[in-house]
Amino acid sequence: MYTDLFGKKRLRLALHQHTTRSDGRKTPEEVARLYREAGYDAIALTDHWVYGGTDSIEGLPILAGAEYHVGHRDAAGGIFHILCLFADRAPSLDREMTAQEIIDGIHAVGGIAVLAHPAWSLNTPEMIKGLRGVDATEIFNAGSERGMNRRGDSSLVVDMLATDGIFYPLLATDDAHRYGQGNDADGVTSSVMVECDSLEPEKLKEAILAERFYATTGPEIHLSREGNRFIVDCSPACEVVFFSNSVWSSGRVVVGEELTHAEFDALPEERYIRACVTDRNGGRAWSNIIKI
């Protein structure tokens, strides 16, 4: 458990990992040990088409999870990867189902459905808008960024959806498979920092759906609003950026050394604001979206 800049207790969670149960290169025990030693409070093992329930491995709490997908290589046909988190039991799914049927199946067992790496999958806003019941998405996926095709950052997809009035809680995940092995190595870098004083799955699920967290690969970020002014408080950063549906305005990019505070006054046409900070080591943190 961590204490943030405002004295609130936060739990560090990793919500997208793979093991030898599917196509990961480390066993569940090895993965749990890595994240425990890195200071995580809990992780979800989301192996492909292999549901794993709530557990404890190597002294680390394990949250229920799995990953299901539609499509394979050609994005023109529609590729959707959907995480199942916090489900009470394994959903009744098969590989012939549509993405919507997978989402519905996840909800039927009490889980939340997370659209994984939409940029990596080349999911267009039109594709995503055709899905009902997506509970969250990944704004950053380290596995896609460090390996595969360098499309781990889904910020553009998030902003295009938000411009159309579609807002999701925004997660940062590792999607780890290789754990430091090979030219496309991935590993322990990303997390969601959840404001919650309990590891009880239902409370964590509630906090994530209520967007009481920030996503990060290192820095801390807090976005707040006072009237028309949007405020970022963060750990020392070299850049703070305020994003919205507006494509032109000054003052939304703040650059400096050891920045811990930045402000931006929203324009009349802006319908949402979100923020991202970058530190001197290249670590980034993303706020959730505040609707105007």
Can I get a quick summary?
With 292 residues, the protein is α+β, with helices and mostly antiparallel strands. It is built from 6 helices and 18 strands. Strands 1, 2, 3, 4, 5, 11, 12, 13, 14, 15, 16, 17 and 18 form a 13-stranded mixed sheet that branches. Strands 6-7-8-9-10 form a 5-stranded mixed sheet.
- Binned strand content: 35-45%
| SS-based class | alpha+beta
- Low-confidence stretches at least 5 residues in length (pLDDT < 50)? none
Helix content: 10-25%
Averaging pLDDT over every residue, what do you get? 95
Would you report the number of β strands?
18
The helix tally amounts to: 6
Rg (C-alpha, Å): 18 Å
What is the N-to-C succession of helices and strands? EEHEEEEEHEHEHHEEHEEEEEEE
What can be said about the biggest beta sheet? Answer: 13 strands, mixed
Shape: globular
Terminal CA distance: 32 Å
Question: Characteristics of this structure?
Answer:
16% helix, alpha+beta
